[in-house]
Specification:
The complex is a heterodimer.
Chain A (H helix, E strand, L loop, with lengths): L11 H23 L11 E2 L1 H11 L6 H9 L8 E2 H11 L4 H17 L1 H15 L7 E2 H12 L6 H10 L4 E2 L1 H13 L15 H19 L1
Antiparallel strand pairs in A: 1-2, 3-4
Chain B lengths: L3 H16 L10 H12 L7 H10 L8 H16 L6 H17 L4 H7 L4 H10 L10 H23 L3 H25 L1 H13 L8 H33 L6 H13 L4 H6 L9 H29 L2 H22 L5 H12 L4 H13 L3 H11 L7 H25 L4 H21 L5 H16 L2 H5 L6 H14 L8 H15 L5 H18 L5 H15 L1 H31 L29 H17 L13 E5 L8 E5 H9 L7 E3 H8 L3 H13 L3 E3 L17 E4 L9 E3 L6 H34 L1 E3 H12 L7 H13 L3 E3 L6 E4 L2
Parallel strand pairs in B: 2-6
Antiparallel strand pairs in B: 1-2, 3-5, 4-5, 7-9, 8-9
Classes of the chains: A mainly alpha, B mainly alpha.
Protein name (chain B): Cullin family profile domain-containing protein
Family (chain B): Belongs to the cullin family.
Keywords (chain B): Isopeptide bond, Ubl conjugation, Ubl conjugation pathway
Chain lengths: 224, 841
Amino acid sequence: MPPNAQQPTTDESNVIDDAKTSVTVAVHQLFERYANKPADNLGPDRIGPHGVLELLEDLGIGSTDRKVLILAWLLKAKIQCEFTADEWNDGLVALGVVSIDDLRMVLEKEERILEKDASKLKTLYRFTYTFGKPEHHRKMDCETAIVYWKILFEDRYALLDAWTLFLRVQQIDVIKSDVWNLVLEFFEQIDANLSNYDDEAAWPVLLTDFVEHIRKEKCAVGAA
Amino acid sequence: MPDAGTINTLLWSGTFSTQKFYCFTTAPRKHKADLSSTSKKLPTDKKTKAEETEAIVMNPANLKVDLETIWPDLESGLDDIFGERRIEQKRYMTLYTNVYNHCINTPSSFSDSTIVAPKSGRGVSRNSMNGYGNGSEFTGGELYQRLKNYLERTVIKALQEGKEKHDEELVRFYVKKWEQFRFYFKVIDGIFAYLNKHWIKRQIEDKRDPIYYVKTLGLVTWRDVLLSELDARVMQGVMDLIRQERDGQTIDRSLIRAVVESYVDLGIDEDASCTSRTVEKSDLKFYRQKFEKRFLGETENYYTTEADDFLQQNPFTEYMKKIEKRLNEEAERCNFYLQTSTLQPLSQICETVFIQRKIELFQRDFGPLLEQERDDDLARIYQLCGRIEQGLEELKLALERHITRQGQNAIDEIAKKSPNDPREFMRGILEVHMRYKGLVSKSFQNEAGFNQALDKASSNFINKNAITKIAGNSSSKGPELIARYCDLLLRKSKDNIGEAEMEEQLQNVIAVFKYIEDKDVFQQFYTKMFSKRLIGGLSASDTAESQMISKLKQMCGFEYTSKLQRMFTDTELSKNITENFRKNCQEKDIALGLDFTIMVLGYSSWPSMPQLQMQMPLKLSETIEHFKNYYNTQHNGRKLSWIYSQSRGELSSTGFQKKYGFQAWTAQMAVLMLYNEAPKQALNLKEMMLQLNTLKEQLVPVVGSLLKNDLLKCDDVAAGTEIENEIADTAVFTLDPNFQSKKIKVDLTRTQMRSEVKKEAEKDKKCIEEDRRLVIEACIVRIMKTRKRLAHNELISEVLQQLSTRFTPNVMKVRTSIEGLMERLFLKRAEDTMNVYEYIA
């Protein structure tokens, strides 16, 4: 029995403090479980790639699952496949998570919310760009962007495959942040047959080129 | 009973109105004399006892004046009037007094009302309820009725007479009767003045219609009894007359005018006549309904047939002349015998029939007339089509198409013969442009829309034509040719023109320049050639140069010409620098041993020039050192870099059969001077490269130019062929001792050093692209800095608009620039909508 149970006179803030402490301790214990793996060799206050893999295994999700991104987003992670002690502790405490089971449930719940909440999806989407590119780079390279689009969107948008193909054929190297941001808007707003694409609107030139490309292809098919 | 005062007042004004028609010079009766004196003495309503008694003497209150007593006399008077018998003053006064006495003295009797009442059922009920007019202290109802019946009878008589007549005869009869009757009505109105004043006035005030003042009663009777019957036939007569006139016959126009006037006078405004004594102010409604409508209908039919018939037998150009004539005739007709207000609908009918309904003919023939240069007919089309709404729009488009085609045809011809001749190009453009500028100002009165069409077309064919097509659809070919044309004008040559003509020519250039889309390309070529003129001292006239600059400035603004201006200044300043340097040398006792002229050019204002690395001959390099030292004492910290590629000099030779002088580029000089020392006057390339400390690719073109001028010989290069860049280092070049020239002064600078030309053209193109990118970005930032937040489309159109004086930017380029600026954090997209940009401060 904890010592304060015997002293009912103790004020409530103490109770809360103690509760907090116990949460913090539990969260930190979880951190310890994955941090400082010898294979990662990153030091004691970080969970490295191997630790993350182990964590994912415990959570029962694959490494290309969207939930991985959601986790990084919820913990405000800065670097891929790494969590610092602060990120982990603050993030989990804020979520009120003390166990792997809790965490699994939270991730599943968040994913369900994302399906419906467009603005939340947008924040996750924008987070992905900063998170996904190397820390000191301004732009994300195209292949990385393609991987993240697949993770984020799965089969949500019919045009995604055509878009990916287009980028590869045109040998696009990098995706600028403006293009990244507007790709989501584009997929959200524009029909698969491009009928409501407005040539006068402020789409980035790359997307305009894409639309032209698709239209030309359609014409070619129509002519054949 | 009215009081005496009222009577007096009425009496006075009654007399007054009578005087309008009959002039009393003597007083026929005693009371009349009194009356006149009364009227003179009575400027106001003030009454004296004496006047009252006078009035009463004239109208003894107790005298019973029965209608039956006076009517026979009145009726015979009316008979006299309508019978065209003269009424003496005395007789007139008797009649007048009869009416007066009847109206004043007979006490109101119920019999009056019973006579008038049966006229209408409505009247009966009202009368029986109110007793015929509460104000019926005045007698007159029966008199009115009798008069009305009399007038009806008389007018019916006239009507019977009219029924016998036809056509013009009828019109003539109608006019005659109308003029008589109108006058009689006025006379009767005078005689019955007291009826007007008393009984009628009250009835009207009580809104007992239809009761009219006597004169109006006459007119109404005329209208309702006679005209309603004869209307159709009179109109037919009038319309026939007008038709005859339109057919070219002479008719009695006064007849029609009189008929029209009758229709105007008969437009009795029922409401107005109730309140106002005068019917002068007539209402045109009657005229419009009865006359104008029919007239316009007839006009439309007549001209519809005429237009079709005429067009079948005559060419279109004659048709237009016909219309012009017809429109004038109708305006004149309207002025002469119709109402002014008819002009507008009449013109409209004519325009609809003649122009609107045939508009496709105008549009069809406009093109051919342009082809045939029938300027007068074109002016006519413009005048006529301008009368109808939207009539000119098609023509403007047609003109634009035509001019574009003419311009393109002209340039097609030139492209076949001399696609690279600036003079021909300009001549072709100017011929077409001047021709149509003249046409627009002469035939189309400089109308704004036609000028716009001219501008659009000019812009079309100047920027896109066979010559630009040959140049690979390059938009820079046009500006280049025009800049070259300027160079030809402004460059010193044997056929330079006088100042006045120069001014005119420059004005022409500007007229064409205005239409050039890529003004920045022109600027680049112009700057380049201008710099060559300045460096070579080749300008025909400084005045003309600065004239041209100021014209360009006027059109495109200060920024456009600032570099040109600075280049001009640099050239002027260099003359001073040269002079001062010479003085300085004299002071310091430095003997240069050659004439030396220097130009110091600001790096940022002048176009880039090819660099040439080469060891200069000793004499020259010494002078250069002297100048460097001198210049550094004058301007501390300025870096001088020497542009040998543009420097020239003069050499004199003693080695040939004659003593020749050579104008040569410094590089040519350097090579030639090597031969002063060369054993056997032979050198191979390797030796030259070593001695001049230069690269092969810079040396080969120089040697090539000397070879071409027959100063050098080489066994490895066949005569008449170009030297190749890959020529062996060991190739030996010998100075030809047998060199001969007809001229004593040989100009070697005219031989272009070939390799330079191609490179420059490519560099120029890149330069323009890069310049444009910077200009677009600067423009976007400038706009966003002031607007802070702006929608995508607005930004794009603003940029296009602002840059239109320099070039026409590609929208894609603008968009790419916007994205680039976002990437570099000058701009960002608004959080709430993707179509709006915000400036990042």
